Every structure is written in C-alpha cells, then in structure tokens.
Amino acid sequence: MSLKRDLPTSTISGFALSASLILTILNILLHNIPNNIQTAGDELLKLNATEGVANAVTTVVVYFRGFDTLGEIAVLFIASLGLGLMLDENKQCDLKAKSNFMLQTASKLLFPIIMLFGIYVMVYGHLSPGGGFQGGVIIASGILLLLISFNEFEVPHSVVSLLEIFAGASYVIIGLIGLLVLDRFLGNFLPNDISNMGMLLSGGIIPIIYIIVGIKVGSEMSVISENLIKRCEDV
Amino acid sequence: MFEFFNQSEVIKVIIIIGSMSIFFVGLFGLVTQKHIIKTFISIAIMESSVFLLFIGLSYKQSFLAPILTDGQQNFNNMNDPIPQAMILTAIVIGMAVLALGVSFAIEYYKLTGKTDIDEMTTLKG
User: Of A190, A223, B15, B104, whose CB is crowded by the most CB atoms within 10 A?
Assistant: First the structure.
C-alpha cells in the first residue's frame, strides 16, 4: 500500500492548513488568559480541607464525584462481562508458546513484591499519588505475569466473583448508609477530623471506598487479561 | 540556555504542539491502516494525546501538586485537581472501550477470517 495512492497532496495540505489555523487560534486564546483566573477547582480545594484527606485528587474522584465513580466501575464491569461473553468458548486451551525456566523463577520471585506494592498503592491512595484504580491495575499486572509464566495457572473464578460481588455491593451500601445517616448519597458518616490529616486512619469513608474500587478494578482487570490471553490457535 | 523554555506561554505552546502531533499520528494511522486492531490502536493513541493536552494545560507554573505533604498546612498555591480526576475517569473508560473492541475483532476473525476493514461488508446487502 503506497502512501501516494491513499493520501493525495490536497489532503496533506488540508491537514497542515487546519493544524496551523487551530494553532493560531489557540495561541491567541492563550495570550488572553488572565493569570489568576478563578476556577471550580479552587473552590473544591477550599472544600477539600473540611474532609481531612491529604490528596485532593482522591477527594474529587471518590467524594465530590463519587456517584460518577460508581458509574465508571459499572462501565468497567460491563466491559469485562461483554469480553467474557465474547471469548469464553475455548477456555481449556493452553498458550502456544511455553515459558522458559528463567521467566518462571523470576515471576515466583517478583509476584509477592508486585502484590505488596499494589496493596500499598491502594491503601495509601488518600495520602500519596495513586489509589484504587492504579493499585488494582498493578495487582492485575502481577496476575498477568503468572498467566504468561505458568500454563496451568488459572484465575480462581469463584474467589474473583465473590470479591466483585462484595466490592460492588459494599460501595452501594456505604452510599446508602450515608444517605440514611446524613443528608446525601455517599455522605461521610465516619469520623473525619482535620487534625488527623495525613494519618493512615483519616478521611472517614474515603479510603475505604478507594480500597473497594481497587478490589473491583483488580479482579476485573485480571479476568480481562485471562480472557484475552487464553485462546485456542485453531482458527 | 533553557530560560526561554521556562516561560508559561512557551510551555503551553510546546504542550499543544506535542499533543497535537500525537493526535495527528493517530489520525494518520486511522486513515491509512486497514487492519482492524491497528485502527483500535490508532484511536488509543488519539485518546492519549487528549489526556496529555488536558493535564498539560491545567499545569500552572510554580504551583504544587494538590497533595499535602510534610510542612504544608493548607491547599493554597496548588494545581487544579479536577482535570486530573476527569482524566483518571477517561483513561479507565478508554481502556474498557479498547478491550471490548479488541474482543469484537477477535470474535469477528474467528467467525469470518477477515481482518481488513474494507472486506467487512456483511451488512451491506
């Protein structure tokens, strides 16, 4: 496939012209931005100090936009469900390439460290960069390492489905308890004193919800990786 | 010699040009490539350019990351946390869409043996 047949000169020059026009417009816009513009994020940063969580991004994701995160987890669950429905037929097949001795030994050595790091990122999501999504993906990468190393390894589906049920249900239940105890869905009903800011036990329900998100994301990503990697080569 | 690049406007123009060039790399792949998985990868590259643009434009110079560490008492002079939270959402949604699209492509290949998007004319009648 030659480039000349698919992209004539007029198309390329059209791309270049539109790119330069957009750049010019953005340049004009950027020169007119005042220095200290007041945004919604500044208001949220002021509100953030009342919740006792050191990481403002965590507060925005889990607390101020907590309902949105619930929908996001639902989207991830639906994607995992659809992928499992599409690719579930040839589950008993092995990988085509056998892994060698070095990969197996190194993955035995590395797997506990990766799991420990993932759990650390999950639990300290309200104090440091990281959180449930990142920690869940790190845990799923450890599972992926086991999947490419050992052909007989399978994700324990009963445990994973129990974890997903527990995580999804407890997210909604914590939100409903907040609705009953306080005035709104996902209200922070646990003690969230500002004097504890920066400690591991601070912020009320926010670290608990982020750990729940991490469990859910980790199990779903593990199932997605297993479904994509375990296929027959008979097609 | 790098003081020129340390100005706020220069940094923003560099971020815009860089993310826009990544966007056009993805668009080029989307226009020229016929393999369906390459099409999905091109869409993922275009998505990543949008993430870079959002995060880069929300960066303000001499402002800190919005996390309290030792010795800080309040959230003054910190960057806006909303674009970072929104991009966190968008990354997860993009990953879900990519995984589902790849699974559809695998299943279509199993059923028909085709990967070229020009040959996918089953619904054309």
Answer: A223
Q: How far is B125 from chain A (nearest CA, A)?
A: 25
Which residues of chain A lie closer than 8 angstroms to B32, CB-CB? Answer: 1, 3, 6-7
Rounded Cα distance, B72 and A49, in Å = 12
Structure token digits, residue A92: 């008993």
Give A60→chain B minimum CA distance, Å. Answer: 7
Paired strand residues for B64:
B78
- Which residues does residue A55 pair with via DSSP β-bridges, in sequence order? B67
Evaluated on CA atoms A145, B94, B37, A15, the torsion sign reads negative
Chain-chain contact of A235 with B113 (C-beta, under 8 angstroms): yes
Do A142 and A111 form a contact (C-beta atoms < 8 A)?
yes
Question: What number of C-beta contacts closer than 8 Å exist between A and B?
Answer: 118
pLDDT digits 0-9 by tens, A32-50: 766 666 777 777 887 877 7
pLDDT (tens digit, 9 = 90+) per residue, B9-58? Answer: 788 888 888 998 999 999 999 999 999 999 999 999 999 999 999 998 88
| Residues forming beta bridges with residue B35, ordered by sequence position | B116
Domain at B4-61+81-124, CATH from 3.40.50.20, 1.20.210.10, 3.90.1720.10, 1.10.287.3510: 1.10.287.3510
- Say whether A87 and B107 touch across the interface (CB within 8 A): yes
Residues in contact with A234: Cβ distance below 8 Å, sequence separation at least 6, in sequence order: A90
Taking residue A114's Cβ as centre, other Cβ atoms within 10 Å add up to: 19
Q: Are A188 and A205 in contact (CB under 8 A)?
A: yes
Which of B16, B88, B91 is most worth mutating to test chain A (most A CB atoms within 10 A of its CB)? B88
> Which two three-digit tokens encode residue A131?
């959180």
